[in-house]
Structure formats: C-alpha cells, structure tokens
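Weekly structure sync, notes
Attendees: PL (lead), two postdocs, one rotation student
Agenda item 3: pending single-chain targets
PL asked that the sequence for the first pending target be pasted directly into the notes so everyone works from the same version. It is reproduced below exactly as submitted, 281 residues in total.
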Amino acid sequence: MAVEAFAPAKINLTLHVTGQRADGYHLLDSLVGFCDLGDVIRVRPADDLSLKVTGPRAAGVPTDGANLVLRAAELIRPAGQGAEITLEKHLPAAAGIGGGSSDAAAALRALAQLWRVELPGQEALLSLGADVPVCMAPGAWRMQGIGEELTRLPALPPCEILLVNPGVSVATPSVFRGLTSRQNDPMPQVLPRWRDAAELAGWLSMQRNDLQAPAISAQPVIATVLQALQASKALFSAMSGSGATCFALYDAESGQAGRAAEAIRAAYPDWWVMSGRVLSQ
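Predicted structure, written out during the meeting:
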C-alpha cells in the first residue's frame, strides 16, 4: 500500500501585522489561499522511518530531523511502525510560500491514512510551526493570532496565478526586526465575497503585506520582481509571506499567467518562475 498527498504552495494574499505578544511572537491578520503548484509526498510501509528527497528543488533539502516532514511523522508514529517517505520537491525552500509547512501537513495526511491513526490536534500542529494548521486543509482562510485562529472562507474566485522567486533567501526574523510599526490595522472585520479575479484584485489593492517593505530593504531584488510582475498585465501583484516569492493574479482562462511566465523566464533565466491556478475548495 502506498499513499500520495499533494502539498500546495500557500499564498499570503494579505499579511497585516497587528501586534506582538510578550513572548515575542507577532500577531497577524492574513487572507490565505493556495494554488495548484506544489510538492508531492509519497509514503509506503517500512520497518523504519526514512525520508528521501527528489525533484527539481531537492538540492540542499535536509533528510534528517531538521526536515519538518520527519518531525511531523514522529508526532503521529505508532509504536513499531515505520514508513518510507519520499518528498518530491518543486517549491523553493524558505521562500514565503509555506513549502515546509505544507510538506509537513501533506505528510501528516498521508501517514495518518497509511498508519490508520488520528490527525493531531491544533496545539501539536503549532509545535511544528505556525503555518502548519492552515496547511492541513488547503483552501481560503482568514488566519489570525500567530496562526492558530483560523476562519474558513468561501472559495476564492477562479484566478490564474504566477509565482516568481529571484533565488535569494530572506530570514524571517530579520524581516520582522525591520518593521517600523508592529501595531497596524487588521483587515476589515467582515470580508467580502469576490465574484471574479478582478474584484478580488481590486480589494487586495486596498490591503497590505506589512513585511514587504522590510524584505525589500533586506533583498532589493524583490522590488525588481514586483516591477516585472506589474509590467505583465497582472490584475494585482505583491510579495507572499516574508518573501522572497512574489505572486501575480490574472483573469481566469486568460492564459496571461503563462505568457507572463515565458517573458519573465526569458528576461531573468536564473529566477524560479511557475504559473498555475488558485485552488478552490
């Protein structure tokens, strides 16, 4: 028996930093979506627990306890059980699109099915990382607090999406340290229901990613990425998470995301550039 699970990229369509707790954790208010670009987890029964990483982005990805996939596996591993885990890596690591967290969540879903055990509760999920709970059920979410306050939202409208990463890493702690204000307005209390990509883009243009400016200060090439996306006839573009991946949204079925991807790849061949679609529930 083998079980496979998809680990989609998580996109912070907005990211408002609304405060900071006494323990140093920042409080967020974020509209989170996912897209059909991601990694793949495959698990098979085995005597021991092991992790192999394959795929075009496998280089440098740890295969020991430093990888969240193995930590997730140990969280629900029954006594005497093992698994051979393969992570097929397509997303860049430490890129602001939740790759490691989504991998861990996909591993939990696959292993729970393989081992016939219950999925862990939220407190255990948060011990793996603040993004893991939202990655357990990819869809449209409002994520607040440090990631533990999750509100399921109606499906996002159909959109094409383009993800671009310039190949630089941005240390999340340094980006948060670069914030000029940690007490910023949240999103509106009631979020609208967007009828199409244009309506969603118009609303997003009135929101923020409060980490975008300090990330650009740390890695100015992010501004170059955003300029390239803005020039691609995108309805909206911004940075996701703490960077350095940026995204752009386009009308559904327009084909514009694919054309923009080709143009940006030609101009910046060293960048990671992928086009796809926003996931609906």
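Discussion points:
- Residues 154-277 form a domain with the Alpha-Beta Plaits fold (CATH 3.30.70.890).
- The mean pLDDT is 96.
Action: rotation student to compare against the earlier draft before next sync.
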